[in-house]
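Researcher: I'm preparing a figure for a lab meeting and need a structural model of a single chain. I don't have an experimental structure, so a prediction will have to do for now. The sequence is pasted below. Please return the structure as tokens so I can convert it later.
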Amino acid sequence: MKFRKSAAFAAAAVALVGLTACGSSTDDGSGDGATGAAPSSTGIKGAVIGFAQVGSESGWRSANTDDIKAAASKYGVDLKFTSAEGDQTKQIASIKTFITQGVDLIAFSPVVETGYDAVLQEAKSAGIPVVLTDRAVDADPSLYKTFIGSDFIKEGEKAATWAKKEFASADAVNMVVLEGTTGSAPANDRKTGWDNVLGSEAKFKTLASQTGEFTRDDGKKVMEGFLAKYPDIDLVYAHNDDMGLGAIEAIEAAGKVPGKDIKIVTIDAVKAGMEALAAGKINYIVECSPLLGEQLFTAAGAVLEGKSIEARIITEEGEFDQAQAKAALPDRKY
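Model: Understood. Here is the structure written out token by token.
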């Protein structure tokens, strides 16, 4: 395989195929499988790949960054890594820099869903393929080769299905929602998934729903506001573990017992969240694996070799109750 840096790279037309089915869930939460996996690649060594990360807003994101860097080293990739720290303008500037540098491939996890059309077109015009990881964009699919990541809608549906069963005998459920970053794919889709299951359930009353920006500190602050205004909260739905952990701090400071007085369901299954689940402070967690490095560089290698890959590569993930969290923690990678 020849790369752009040798001036002999020829852009390959990669056939995009239809969306694959959603990844099946597993009870053990291993998160090491995938549907729509890319063909294996053995010739990616030496490729120059630019990766524009969202930021470092959570434990999940840190684990995601570490896994991508480790996989780049394993594959012998020359990784040019930047972090936008939640700023879309900064992220787009990084992508433009990658284009100017003439990297072989660009990968990024979008800050929000919209606003990337122009820079994606620039990359396409320059003959540089793009791979999306973790989060999707609302843009012409011909502008990128594949999207690797979780089915966020299914995650929301799993969380809501647990809540429906947990509160099956309750006459009414007062709930609050800690949303992810406004406009981001996981925030939008996790809300959609939740509403798909519970939108018609009148007994589930949403007292308040507000972004906690996927961070523990903001999750705590927002939850403090919820508790001050609403004394009878039964359930917290947090779009990620970090906000759920912040909510725990606020609940304890208010003299209540998280997991008992107020039940909590979150998404991610990072180690700190799993520890809180094992301790009974969180009641249920739906997994969203950050370990995408292997899939990213396998897909990137396939693209650079001109192989056909799936337009959507979905990671396989599980769900955890307290007993499952205790069993999984000793071998947890993140």
